[in-house]
Amino acid sequence: MERVAKEQLYGCRMCGQCALPDTGYTCPMTCPKQLRNGPCGGVAADGRCEVHPDLVCVWVTAIERAQGAGHGADLDLLQRPVDHREWDRSSWVNYWQGRDDGLGVAYGEDDPRPLLRRELGLSPR
């Protein structure tokens, strides 16, 4: 159910680490470069994607949607790199089991390194 709904509504790629709420409900994994923290340097002046010039940059859409909904500040969250072991897994299950804890980290708020260390099985500082 999650796959069908999110693919149809958002173009979801089922990365298992959903960033939709933080990106104006635009799936950052639909970016040809799979950038999770904003647009690349190749976005054209008219907002077109450098890889697929016939398409609007995913991040231009994300910014417009987030700002239009009054959630532009959500785009300031840093998204952790994708854990490719989670591909094709349910982000809903990961959410309810606490495996997506701290996917978005605000600048200067919390140091994301302890979260990454925990995921790697290393002890926190």
Question: What features would you describe in this structure?
Answer:
The protein has 125 residues and is mainly alpha-helical. The protein has one domain (2-119). It is built from 4 helices and 2 strands. A two-stranded antiparallel sheet has the order 1-2. The model is unreliable at 112-118 (pLDDT under 50).
Could you name the key traits of this structure?
mainly alpha, globular, 4 helices, 125 residues, two-stranded antiparallel ribbon
How is this structure best summarized?
The protein has 125 residues and is mostly helical. It is 26% helix and 3% strand.
Layout of helices and strands:
Elements: H1 2-10, H2 58-68, E1 78-79, H3 91-96, E2 104-105, H4 113-119
Antiparallel strand pairs: 1-2
The order of strands across the largest sheet is: 1-2
**CA radius of gyration:** 15 Å
User: Can you tell me the residue ranges where pLDDT is under 50 for at least 5 consecutive residues?
Assistant: 112-118
- Secondary-structure element pattern, one letter each: HHEHEH
Total domains, how many? 1
User: Would you count the extended β strands for me?
Assistant: 2
> Roughly what is the average pLDDT, rounded to an integer?
80
